[in-house]
Amino acid sequence: MTHGFRTDTHTPYFDGGGGGRSWRDTATHYALLPLRVFLGVTFIYAGLDKLTDSAFMKDSGVGSIGDQMRNVKQSSAIPAMVDMALNNPVGFGYAIAFGELAVGLGTLFGLLARLAALGGALISLSLWLTVSWAAEPYYYGNDLAYLMAWLPLVLAGAPYLSLDALIRNRRRQPSGASAW
Fold it and tell me: Which residues, including other chains, have CB under 8 Å from residue 83's CB and lie 6 or more apart?
């Protein structure tokens, strides 16, 4: 016996003249956009915050990247990762800050969006394994939630309202046709 279900049985709640597209279809079409905006703005802010905080970009002292890394070394999942960062804490701080800035801008504008999302996932993973690993219960550590939030964007990219979509659409046009 064959079982199946139909996916075309929902009734449109709203058809605002979008060429027969229902409200549900429109919502599904743009479902990842709020996540993309949130993560992009958050990572831009995080990168700029680090770059403009004079206490953060130091080897030692209150609020410094060096002291933060020394404080989490014993409680991290991979202390060797923290040791690598402690070889040059200021350089590591700049790498994280510029990485967050690049990830945030790429995600917000949708330029190399999958690569940007992968970068965001890797930053979140490294922070989870080091800084927030000891959070108990585990859901108090926000880096794990950020890691999970990046995964849909790694899979889907930024197919709408993005520079990636603009570039893709221009490549599909026949030569000699205007993009506008």
Answer: 73
Strands (E), 33-106: none
d(CA 72, CA 82): 8
Specify the residue for token string 């020394």: 70
- The two three-digit tokens of residue 59, written as one number: 């080897």
* Cα Rg of the chain (Å, integer): 21
Q: Give me 34's structure tokens.
A: 């709020």
**Taking the model in full, what pTM does it have?**
0.83
Q: What is the pLDDT of residues 96-152, one digit of tens each?
A: 999 999 999 999 999 999 999 999 999 999 999 999 999 998 888 899 999 999 999
What is the token pair recorded at 25?
């279809």
Alpha carbons 114 and 116: distance in angstroms, whole number: 5
Look up residue 132 and give its two tokens.
Answer: 């927030």
Contacts of 86 (CB under 8 A, 6+ apart): 66, 69, 70, 73, 92
pLDDT digits (tens, 9 = 90+) for 37-67: 999 999 999 999 999 999 999 999 999 999 9
